[in-house]
Amino acid sequence: MRAPERWWPAGLGDSPNSAGGQNEARYAFFGDQKRLALDLGQGKVQVYDTGDHHISGVQQHQSGSGRKVTFTSQKGEVDLEALKRV
Questions:
Q1: 22 inside domain
Q2: How many domains is the chain built from?
Q3: β-strand 25-30 against 35-39: which pairing, if any?
Q4: Is residue 4 assigned to a domain?
Q5: Is residue 5 part of a domain?
Q6: What is the extent of the structural domain holding 29?
Q7: What pTM was computed for the model?
Q8: Per-residue pLDDT tens listing for the chain (86 residues)
Q9: C-alpha pair distances (Å), 8 with each of 24, 48, 56, 63, 75
Q10: Closest CA relative to residue 83, chosen from 36, 40, 42, 43
Q11: 3-state SS of the chain: helix, strand, coil percent to 5?
Q12: Is residue 75 part of a domain?
């Protein structure tokens, strides 16, 4: 499998442990660094500390109050709001 084209900050490396997206959002998870790079579609990449979560998927939920982004980890679903932005 070919590595995805890098859109995340260079300091995270070239090969994420997992990467993917849904609709306009995309993510790349770097397990050794415990970091998650996230682009919600505006072209602005934000980086989060994942703590002890190993991210393997992303879901977006639209509602009247806006968009909710959750990730799949070995512990189940984790809300983006639960991760610390770095």
A1: yes
A2: 1
A3: antiparallel
A4: no
A5: no
A6: 10-85
A7: 0.85
A8: 565 688 999 999 999 999 988 777 899 999 999 999 999 888 899 999 999 999 988 888 776 666 788 999 999 999 999 999 99
A9: 15, 12, 17, 28, 25
A10: 36
A11: 5, 50, 45
A12: yes
